[in-house]
């Protein structure tokens, strides 16, 4: 994060026709891709984003974490801050349980979990519209893939990014 954002693409990305049926957005060529899991070692912090499947991270994300065994063995990520943002199909889709179950991945790596808590202020208490996101991290209710994120969901995601960047900068001074 200290060197800009990046993305580690899933090696098990669904075929284009499946992505189209899921209404997945096109690949953004402006997002820098890290070519290998080992590239994570050079990052100052992490925000991992993924969809939930039955209240837990999607299998592709679990496979990604499973591929970090060498980094885990050598504790190359220990002490770095990390957080999550998620998407679910429904309001009962498991945004909080997805974060809870994903925290185990951070703990084994010695990563420092950085939740956003209620730092988003009054917007965390808005009840006038459907809104994803929890004290664990930003979130969106994707529905069947046709629902666009609300302004509040987008603002929460931006807040989380800025909040994490602030934490990364504070830890860099230590």
Give a verbal description of the structure:
The protein is an alpha/beta fold and 174 residues long. The chain has five helices and five strands, in the order αββααβαββα. Strands 1, 2, 3, 4 and 5 form a five-stranded mixed β-sheet that branches. β1 (46-53) and β2 form a beta hairpin. The protein is globular and about 45 Å long. The model has no long low-confidence stretch (mean pLDDT 88).
Outline of this structure?
The chain is built from five helices and five strands, in the order αββααβαββα.
Secondary-structure element pattern, one letter each = HEEHHEHEEH
The percent range for helix content is 25-40%
Shape: globular
Beta fraction = 5-15%
What are the low-pLDDT stretches, counting only 5+ consecutive residues below 50?
none
The major β-sheet equals:
5 strands, mixed
Tally the beta strands: 5
N-to-C terminal Cα separation, in Å? 17 Å
Mean pLDDT: 88
Structural class: alpha/beta
Helical run tally? 5
Radius of gyration, whole Å:
16 Å
Features of the shown structure:
174 residues; alpha/beta; 5 helices; five-stranded mixed beta sheet
SSE topology sketch:
Elements: H1 16-21, E1 46-53, E2 56-57, H2 59-66, H3 69-73, E3 81-88, H4 95-109, E4 112-113, E5 139-141, H5 151-173
Parallel strand pairs: 1-3, 3-4, 3-5
Antiparallel strand pairs: 1-2
């Amino acid at each position: 994060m200290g060197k800009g954002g990046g993305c580690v693409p899933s090696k098990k990305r669904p075929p284009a026709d499946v992505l189209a049926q899921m209404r997945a957005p096109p690949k953004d060529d402006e997002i820098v891709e890290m070519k290998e899991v080992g590239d994570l070692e050079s990052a100052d912090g992490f925000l991992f984003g993924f969809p939930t499947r039955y209240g837990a991270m999607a299998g592709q994300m679990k496979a990604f974490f499973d591929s970090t065994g060498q980094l885990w063995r050598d504790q190359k990520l220990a002490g770095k801050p990390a957080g999550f943002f998620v998407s679910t199909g429904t309001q009962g889709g498991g945004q909080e349980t997805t974060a809870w179950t994903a925290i185990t991945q951070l703990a084994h790596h010695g990563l420092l979990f950085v939740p956003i808590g209620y730092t988003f202020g009054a917007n965390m208490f808005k009840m006038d519209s459907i809104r994803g996101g929890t004290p664990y991290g930003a979130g969106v209710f994707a529905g069947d893939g046709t629902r666009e994120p609300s302004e509040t969901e987008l603002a929460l995601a931006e807040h989380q990014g800025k909040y994490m960047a602030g934490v990364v900068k504070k830890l860099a001074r230590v």
